[in-house]
Amino acid sequence: MKPPADLRVRHAMNATAATNSLFPTTIAGSLPKPAWLAEPNKLWPRWRLKGEDLAAAIDDATLVALKLQEDADIDIVCDGEQSRQHFVHGFLVAVDGIDFDQKVEMGIRNDRYKAMCPTVVGELRLRSRVHAREARLARAHTTRKLKFTLPGPMTIVDTIADAYYGDRIKMAMAFAGLLNEEARGLAADGVDVIQFDEPAFNVYMEQAAGWGIDALHCAIDGVLCTTAVHICYGYGIPANIAWKAGLGTEWRQYEKFFPALAKSRIDEVSIECINSRVPMSTLRLLDGKSVQIGVIDIATDKIETPEEVAGVIGEVAKHVAKEKIIPSTNCGMAPMRRDIAEKKLHSLGKGAALAREKFG
After folding, report:
1. C-alpha to C-alpha distance for 258 and 252, rounded to whole angstroms
2. 185 in a domain, yes or no?
3. Which of 61, 101, 295, 358 sits between 20 and 30 A of 341, alpha carbons compared?
């Protein structure tokens, strides 16, 4: 059931009033799931419950995720992806044309690691809305701006086997159409920001500048809210940490497609900054875009100090207009210890507040 129009308008007005105008904070998307909901400290955890008990527990976990963010002074909150076992496959479970029993071992992210992936066996269609329940629940229980995340088309096709379309671009456009259906629904539910997660963009740079952005444009067509794309070096799992260690002293991959991204219709770009080797001057290539900057490292349990967070914001402010900077996390926090993630949230909120004092 869709929230009444007057309720959605009132939430939107309150959200605008409650958001800090300088350095508004957000998170990349996921938070650890409570141990009573799913296995802790795993990227793809098994659920503890089934059926209606699971649905009710997900509702409870979503409300807890909102409260954790509000208590940490996060301005643009999200559902914490509590309803999804995995950021890609949480969307795919609502798609017809995919056989989850026909799994294929694939090298994904250009063979960075292998995964057992379901197979596209027919024309892709949405059975129903995918995230209406959690989006409407979140919208009804926070007056802050609400962000919702969806997997990007390129990342989906890099995480699934194809036995039907025979062409990655054709399949990506098919998924983009489904994402557009869901994104339009989320915007109607009162979501303020819809973010598409595209870690594949920093692996397939030339394609990202071409059909990757084309697919995003299809996904955001007619979506009446702010749109964002999250590009990162991945969760803090061993395969990603090892891969980053071999990328050299400077990570300059973004230079290959940031100019194309700057010309795109996407409103915001989310990237990894703290403890990365991305030259901050690279951000100048995103002129005109709002930039969600990662100021919290999700690949370590070390808790950042507010001073460290503010320091990253200050460095970015040398290259990006202050009013365009949105402090965030480097990536999702799903596999982290819950207590560590909560402390990092508070460092994010306090660090942004300190940056407003120093640079405002």
Report:
1. 10
2. yes
3. 358
User: What is the rounded distance in angstroms from the CA atom of residue 9 to the CA atom of residue 188?
Assistant: 11
Is residue 104 in some structural domain? yes
pLDDT of residue 107: 74
- Number of domains observed in the structure of the chain: 1
Q: Token pair 């290539």 is at which residue?
A: 285
Percentages (nearest 5) of helix, strand, coil residues in the chain: 45, 20, 40
pLDDT at 240: 62
Q: Do the domain assignments include residue 2?
A: no
The 10s digit of each residue's pLDDT in 151-185 is: 999 999 999 999 999 999 999 999 999 999 999 99
Amino acid identity, position 252: R
CA 184 to each of CA 23, 188, 280: distance values in angstroms, whole numbers, following the listed order:
27, 6, 34
Which residues lie below 8 Å from residue 295, measured CB to CB, with a gap of 6+? Answer: 273, 274, 304, 309, 312, 313, 327, 328, 329, 348, 351, 352
Please compute the mean of the pLDDT values over residues 201-213 and round it to a whole number: 93
Tally of CA atoms within 13 A in the half-sphere of 171 that contains its CB: 21
Domain with residue 103: its CATH number is: 3.20.20.210
Convert the pLDDT of each residue in 222-254 to its tens digit.
999 999 999 987 665 676 667 666 667 787 888
Average pLDDT in the 269-287 region? 94
pTM, full prediction: 0.93
Domain of residue 196 covers 13-359
* Tokens 């954790």, residue located: 68
**Average pLDDT, stretch 126-147?**
98
